[in-house]
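dumping the sequnces here before i forget
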Amino acid sequence: MDIFSSSFALEVLPALLRGAVVTFLATIGGFMASLVVGGILLGLYRSSSRPIALFGKSLIEVLRSTPLLIQVYFLFFVLPNVGIVLQPVTTGIIALGLYHGAYVAEAYRAGFDSIPRGQWDAVESLRFSRYAALRYLILPQAIIPLIPALGNTFITMLKDTPILAAITVPEMMFEANDAGSQSFRYVEPITMAAIGYLIMSAVAAGFIYLLQNRLGRHR
Amino acid sequence: MTEMITFENVCKRFGATVILKDFNFKVMRGEKVAIIGPSGSGKSTLLRMIMALQDIDHGKVSIDGKPLWDLNHGQHLVKPTRQHLRDMRSLVGMVFQNFNLFPNLTALGNVAAAPRHVLGLSKKEAEGRAAMLLAQVGLSEKLSNYPSTLSGGQQQRVAIARAMALEPKVMLFDEATSALDPELVGEVLGVMRELASARDLTVLVVTHQMGVARAIADRVCFMEGGCVVEEGGADTLLSHPKNERTRAFLRAVHLA
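..and the predicted 3d for all of it:
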């Protein structure tokens, strides 16, 4: 028997591609969620009310200091007890969003801190409202140093999606495992899945590079 | 003539450092005043208080007769609301040492941003106003340049146009020519002089370049240790200072 049978690899390809679609959607969904969660966490953390700031800080610590797998299990097995029943993939997206949101909050903070004080002086002296200042002046600047960090988050998240297999999300690793357990041949599905992640990561990295060059061109 | 800027018994300290102590100061409407003095004498803090970028510990600051910082109102310490500060800022424009242009916007975008998003003008109106102001500071050719592609002198002229776009009654220049290469000071000073020729505009310049003080100001104040030590007409004070500390400072500046 060959170590790697290309015919078997072809046989499992459709299942893996189906899984890849789920992986992609879970990553995109989790990434979007983490951008929102990160914003909320930073808002709490930067609140002028001390209890709220402390709450935000603690939440960030908890999310960063516990394994993603535990957070996934927690949402999947504990939420139904309080009457919230979600699709596994929805649960997975929320878990990814929360876990990585804590890191995104840190990235946002670094982005904001990279804005020189003088920009705030200019914004204040020109009477911009907080919203207009953020929308037109501060965020467009803060986002450029954020891109590498957010790009990392995206790729890390992509590689974290196999954890969702633990709650039966039919993503790429789940499908690879499934194909393996039915045939007792793991080399082909696992190798193909690895190539799949590699391709997706490489495409994402290329996209991030282009984005950075495009947005950072006036620096 | 009416008072445009009034400081009454203003105190400010940062930690143990006293910046202003029982500071009293007046600028009349349309007056052009330069403030000189060694670094740390509180002159930049003074401008930041007028622009409401810096609060005070005690006392009262009024602009155009309206209280800006009025912390001893009655017996209570009253902290002004954000909205009050925003309203008061409509009277004042400020130009900074390091320009503080928005790097993500073109020269036109920098000047049009506040008219558009603060005053609510249409894009067309705001850009029309911006183009006119940029023409006044001699930058008609540079409308679509980003700040990073402009020289220091050009950037500072954009910053002046940007501040003027909100039609302030008071213009503050905080070391506006100090970060510029010497050969670029002239072009910015030219624009400042032209602005200062407007009878109604009140101009307050903080500088350590005596040429700037001479070119712009009718009255020069020498500040040290949080007080005005000596003031007078530009020529009188700069050429014939009476106070020994003023003389020592001017000697040091001329030697530098």
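Chain A has a mean pLDDT of 91.
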